[in-house]
Amino acid sequence: MNPWEESLREALRRKVAPEGFADRVLARIRGLPVREKRPWFRAFLARPALRWAAAVLCLAIAGSVAYREQQQRQRRQGEIARMQVKQALRIASVKLNAARRMVQQVNQGTVQNRL
Amino acid sequence: MTTPTLDRCEEALGRLARGDMSAFEELVKEHQSMVFSITYHYLHDRSLAEDAAQDVFLRLYQNLASIVSSKHLVFWLRKVACQRALDMARRLPKAPPVSLEDINEPAAESADADPLLSEGLRRMVASLPENARAVVILRYQEELELAEIARILDIPLNTVKSRLERSLGILREKLGRWSGGFAR
């Protein structure tokens, strides 16, 4: 190193850090915002591919629930219709029996009158 | 850096890894002079240099997990100090050219052999092109080999050589004009 470079080395000698430097660094560290721990699902949804997958899954679940609801509604309506048909048949049966009895009574009366 | 210092740092890093945060304060105190001096010689402003040096240690705190040894710590601190000083320098308005009138009377208790010359040189270094400044500081403050400077600044060795030569040329010329041939 020539004398000129020696002067440069002398000029750029390490400086003493300002008084209380470390304390100020530590104070700033204590003031650092603590990195908030994100709930697992937010970390999960942070990735676009997983976000799409979650959206598709939600749609599939919603579709499946709606389909099952519709099936159950149809089944209930079928059940009501079946009961209504049975009721109608029962009523018709009662009416037919009554009519048959009346016809029999009428027939018996006619025969007695002839005799 | 001396072996006892490296041993102390190694021991502090070990304690930090075990969760002893008081070891971080020791590391700051051990390296604050080096980091502050890099940023100060880069920016030539004590207040800005302190801000930049504090930022370096804050980043160290956030990246402690990536530090594998005391040598790596020193390398990392030098690298980040240069980067931080460069970032800060780029945000500052361009400094006017250095003239003799700009240089204040040196303090009586200055430890420099020639305080006026040292202050002049520091100002001239701080007025070098931003990319070249770090090379000069790492070469003459930290007394590093050119290959080590290339590794820290992540540039080819030949670039380090050319930047250093160009910087020394500029400094010699400025100093020559300033002191009327002192450098010759």
Fold and architecture overview:
- The complex is a heterodimer of chains A (115) and B (184).
- Chain A has 115 residues and is mainly α.
- Chain A is 80% helix and 0% strand.
- Chain A has a domain of 68 residues.
- Chain A is rod-shaped and about 160 Å long.
- Chain B has 184 residues and is mainly α.
- Chain B has two domains: 93 residues, Rna Polymerase Sigma Factor, Chain: A, CATH 1.10.1740; 89 residues, Arc Repressor Mutant, subunit A (Orthogonal Bundle), CATH 1.10.10.
- Helix content of chain B is 71%, strand content 0%.
- Chain B is built from eight helices and no strands.
- In chain B, helix 2 packs across helix 4 and helix 7 packs across helix 8.
- About 7% of the residues of chain B have low confidence.
Oligomer: heterodimer
Number of domains of chain B: 2
Low-confidence region ranges of chain B:
97-103, 105-109
Q: State the end-to-end distance of chain A.
A: 158 Å
Radius of gyration of chain B: 18 Å
What order do the helices and strands come in, and which of them pair?
The complex is a heterodimer of chains A (115) and B (184).
Chain A: H1 3-11, H2 21-30, H3 40-45, H4 48-114
Chain B: H1 3-17, H2 22-43, H3 46-62, H4 70-91, H5 115-126, H6 130-140, H7 146-153, H8 157-179
Identify the notable features of this structure and list them briefly:
heterodimer; A: 115 residues; mainly alpha; 4 helices; 0% strand; rod-shaped; B: 184 residues; Rna Polymerase Sigma Factor, Chain: A; Arc Repressor Mutant, subunit A; 2 domains; 8 helices; 71% helix
Tell me briefly what this model is.
With 115 residues, chain A is mainly alpha-helical. Chain A contains four helices and no strands.
